[in-house]
Design a protein that fits this description.
Layout (H helix, E strand, L loop, with lengths): L2 H29 L1 H7 L10 H34 L10
Length: 93
């Protein structure tokens, strides 16, 4: 695996998890807006928007989780590749 491919896997995982986290945060804010209102101190204020909080937390936490998962996957593939026997080129001389 090349460095570029490993980096691409980590970033794709981060973006995918961020998208999923944002969607889950949005859905949670729509279904249970009282969850975010009760978790945060200023949640009872009229200016508090649980949908924005849900999307923001979902994206940020999802991105971090995706980076961790992607890094673990790349590390596991690198370790597995280092332990597999390498094919030697044929010497036709």
């Amino acid at each position: 695996m090349t460095v570029f491919r490993g980096f691409a896997i980590v970033m794709a995982s981060g973006i995918g998890f961020a998208t999923g986290g944002g969607l889950l945060g949005y859905l949670l804010a729509l279904v249970l807006p009282s969850y975010y209102r009760n978790v945060f101190r200023g949640g009872q204020s009229n200016l508090f928007d649980p949908v924005q909080v849900g999307i923001g937390l979902g994206i940020s936490q999802g991105f971090i989780a995706g980076l961790v998962v992607g890094a673990v996957v790349v590390l596991a593939v690198a370790i597995a590749a280092s332990k597999s026997p390498r094919k030697e080129p044929l010497d036709l001389d």
